[in-house]
Design brief:
54% of the residues lie in helices and 11% in strands. The protein is α/β, with parallel strands linked by helices. Strands 3-2-4-1-5-6 form a 6-stranded parallel sheet, with helices on both faces. Helix 2 links the parallel strand 2 and strand 3. The longest helix has 25 residues. It binds one RNA strand of 71 nucleotides through helix 3, helix 4, helix 8, helix 9 and helix 13.
Length: 314
RNA sequence: GGCGACAUAGCCAAGCGGUAAGGCACGGGUCUGCAACACCCUGAGCACCAGUUCAAAUCUGGUUGUCGCCU
C-alpha cells in the first residue's frame, strides 16, 4: 500500500500559521487538523489565539474546542484523534493538513510513535510524587539509575517530571523507556509528507508577540480567564497552565499586578517561541520557510505549493 | 557655582584589601503520555588616570559622568 499524503504547517507562536493554513487548504483541497495542545479546549479562545469560525472560511477544522478544560489531554490522546481524523479526511479524498505549534504532537503523528495504552494505575505515580517531595528528586534519580541506567544518564537529576515518567514506564511495562525510545526513534513515517516550518526574523517575531499579547488584553483576556475560574476550572489543570491563563490567573489571585502579569506573559511567550524553534531545528526533513524572504503570503503559498508538487503530494 | 552621594555584564545587584555571589534578559540545548510542561548550558575583571601595598573592585588623590540638595 502506498503512503498517503500529509501536509504539516508549523512554526513558532505568532508567525502567522493560521491565515496561511486557510489559503493552503483551499489551494490543495485539504482539511485542517489542529496540532495545538491548548486550542483543543473549549472556552479558551482569546488566550490561545484560536481561529474564529468565520475565519475558517468553510474549511473543516478538527481538534479545536473539542474538550472541556478539566479533561486530561495528552500526546497519546492527540495521536489517537488525529489518526482518526486523518482517515476521515482521506475518505473524502482530501488532504489532511496538520497545523499548529506543538512539535511533540506533530512528531507523535508523523512517526506514528507507539505509546503503550497503560494509564490504569495512578497509585504508583502518586507514590513517586510523594517520594519526590520527601526525599528529593536525586533519590528518584538514583532509583532510576538502578532500573534503567541509560535513562538515568540521559535525564538530569533535577528533572523530576521526566524521572517519574521513566520510573512509571518501567513499573508498568518492565522495560526501560530508554530502550523503547531508541527503538521508536528509527520509525519511518507512514505518510508521504512535507513538513513546513514558517519562521521569520527573531526580533520581528518577538515584536509581533508583544503586540499580540497587548491585543489579547484589549480583547478581553482577563474576562475570559475570570469566566473560566468562575466555571470552576482551577490552576492545577493542564489547560489553566497554558500561556495567558497562568499569568492572568496569577493576577486574578492577587499574586501579580496586571502590568506585571502582562510583562511575564510576553516574556514567557517569547521563551516558548524560542523553545519551539529549538524543537523544529532537530526535526529531520523540515522545509524552513522564512517569511522575510517573500513579498507576501501569496508568494509563500506558491513556494509551498511548488514543494508539494515536487513531492508528488498534489 | 557650592555641598553630598553614587559609578561592578544588556538590566537589577552582592562584595568593603587576597584574586568578581546571585537574579532577570539575550543566546544555545534536552525532550517519545501533563509538552503553551519540565529541565540543562552560557557572559564581565569592576568609569578613567595616577598612587599606597607582596596583593585593590575594595584604600588615597585627581579626571569624567549620573543623581540629590543648596545659592
Amino acid at each position: 500500500m502506498s503512503k498517503k499524503p500529509l501536509i504539516i504547517l508549523t512554526g513558532p507562536t505568532s508567525v502567522g500559521k493560521t491565515s496561511l493554513s486557510i489559503s493552503l487548504a483551499k489551494a490543495v483541497n485539504g482539511e485542517i487538523i489542529s496540532a495545538d495542545s491548548m486550542q483543543v479546549y473549549k472556552y479558551m479562545n482569546i488566550g490561545t489565539a484560536k481561529i474564529k469560525d468565520e475565519e475558517m472560511d468553510g474549511i473543516p477544522h478538527y481538534l479545536i474546542s473539542e474538550f472541556d478544560p478539566d479533561e486530561d489531554f495528552n500526546v497519546f490522546k492527540f495521536q489517537q484523534y488525529a489518526k482518526k481524523y486523518i482517515e476521515i479526511i482521506q475518505e473524502k479524498n482530501k488532504i489532511p493538513i496538520l497545523v499548529g505549534g506543538t512539535g511533540f504532537y506533530i512528531q507523535a503523528v508523523l512517526y506514528d510513535i507507539d505509546f503503550q495504552d497503560n494509564d490504569s494505575d495512578k497509585s504508583y505515580r502518586q507514590e513517586l510524587e510523594a517520594l519526590a517531595k520527601t526525599r528529593g528528586s536525586t533519590y528518584l534519580h538514583e532509583l532510576l539509575a538502578h532500573r534503567d541506567p541509560l535513562s538515568a544518564k540521559a535525564i538530569h537529576p533535577n528533572n523530576t517530571k521526566k524521572i517519574i515518567r521513566a520510573l512509571e514506564y518501567y513499573h508498568q511495562t518492565g522495560e526501560a523507556i530508554s530502550a523503547h525510545n531508541k527503538e521508536q526513534k528509527n520509525n519511518e513515517s507512514p505518510y508521504l509528507y512535507k513538513y513546513f516550518v514558517l519562521n521569520r526574523d527573531r526580533a520581528k517575531l518577538y515584536e509581533t508577540i508583544n503586540v499580540r499579547v497587548d491585543a489579547m488584553i484589549k480583547n478581553g483576556l482577563v474576562d475570559e480567564v475570570k469566566k473560566l475560574k468562575n466555571m470552576g476550572y482551577t490552576k492545577d489543570m493542564v489547560s489553566m497552565q497554558g500561556l495567558g491563563y497562568k499569568e492572568i490567573g496569577a493576577y486574578l489571585d492577587g499574586e501579580l499586578s496586571l502590568d506585571e502579569a502582562i510583562h511575564v506573559l510576553k516574556r514567557d511567550t517569547r521563551h516558548y517561541a524560542k523553545r519551539q524553534l529549538t524543537w523544529f531545528r532537530r526535526e529531520k526533513d523540515v522545509v524552513w520557510v522564512d517569511k522575510d524572504n517573500f513579498e507576501n503570503d501569496h508568494a509563500i503559498l506558491d513556494h509551498i505549493l511548488n514543494h508539494l508538487k515536487e513531492a508528488g503530494i498534489i
